[in-house]
Write a structure and sequence with these properties.
This protein is α/β, with parallel strands linked by helices and 258 residues long. The protein has 2 domains: 195 residues, Alpha-Beta Complex (2-enoyl-CoA Hydratase, Chain A, domain 1), CATH 3.90.226; 47 residues, no CATH class. The protein is built from 12 helices and 10 strands. The relative contact order is 0.12.
């Protein structure tokens, strides 16, 4: 059985492309791959040269099907649902850098969790999202129950989670879960184009946008409102605002601080 790998490529000097590469197993994550995915996200979050992260799977059939269940059955099944084994599927939401999921096929179980935890999602036309765990007696976790009703109409989220039925790429786009559908051959390139646009923005402002939106989704509008005001006041006294305004007046591209 292939152990698979997590590949890293840096595009345009600022966008990290992270690829879950175990194509023959629908990019199912082994324990080694899961641990590396978690570590790599935090490593990239600490790098000043990386401004955006693109997450995708190898090939065109699957983003990832989540944990390798065959491997899980060889050990203690309860460990599979422990916090340490779930953290890699929510890590995109935990870091300050923006994460774009380029969903290139089936995003099932843990793959669905990774998409939910990402800041932006684009998908190929053959992509689909599913939470099949309920059919196995598994309660959907990793953000599926808590976050999905904020990202899809509650009735649609309930249907997907309670019936275990796949959500097509077209329906996901129609309901706003996916922001754009792209031909499979251009999917990662398009995600990198989005990453380049983000990379040209002031990093502190991008991190603030991510954190306030996350606060709205996970806490409350009043909490996000207070954070929005505080972060806006801090940013307003920073050098990036003056640089942005001067660049606009001088009709040139701004050069923001790292």
């Amino acid at each position: 059985m292939s152990d698979g790998q997590i590949r890293l490529d840096i595009v345009d000097g600022s966008t990290a492309v992270v690829t879950m590469d175990r194509e023959e197993k629908r990019n199912a994550l082994t324990d080694v791959m899961s641990a590396r995915l978690f570590e790599l996200f935090h490593e990239l979050d600490a790098r000043k040269d990386v401004r955006a992260i693109v997450l995708t799977g190898a090939g065109e059939k699957a983003f990832t099907s989540g944990h390798d269940l065959k491997q899980a059955l060889e050990g203690d099944i309860a460990v599979l649902f422990s916090e340490p084994n779930i953290k890699e599927f929510i890590v995109p939401a935990m870091i300050s850098k923006p994460v774009i999921s380029a969903v290139n096929g089936a995003a099932y179980a843990g793959g669905f969790c990774l998409a939910i935890a990402s800041d932006l999602r684009i998908a190929s036309h053959n992509a689909s999202f599913a939470s099949p765990g309920i059919k196995l007696g598994i309660v959907p976790i990793g953000g599926q129950l808590s976050m999905l009703p904020h990202l899809l109409p509650p009735a649609v989220a309930t249907e997907v989670l309670m019936l275990g039925v796949p959500l097509s790429a077209e329906r996901a786009e129609r309901h706003g879960f996916v922001s754009e559908l792209v031909d499979a051959g251009r999917l990662v390139d398009r995600a990198c184009e989005m990453g380049k646009i983000i990379a040209d923005m002031p990093p502190a402002s991008v991190a603030s946008v991510k954190r306030v939106i996350r606060t709205t989704l996970t806490q409350s509008v009043p909490a996000a409102d207070a954070m929005e005001f505080w972060r806006g006041m801090v940013a307003g006294t920073g050098p990036d605002v003056e640089e942005g305004l001067r660049a606009f007046v001088e009709r040139r591209s701004p050069v923001f601080s790292a």
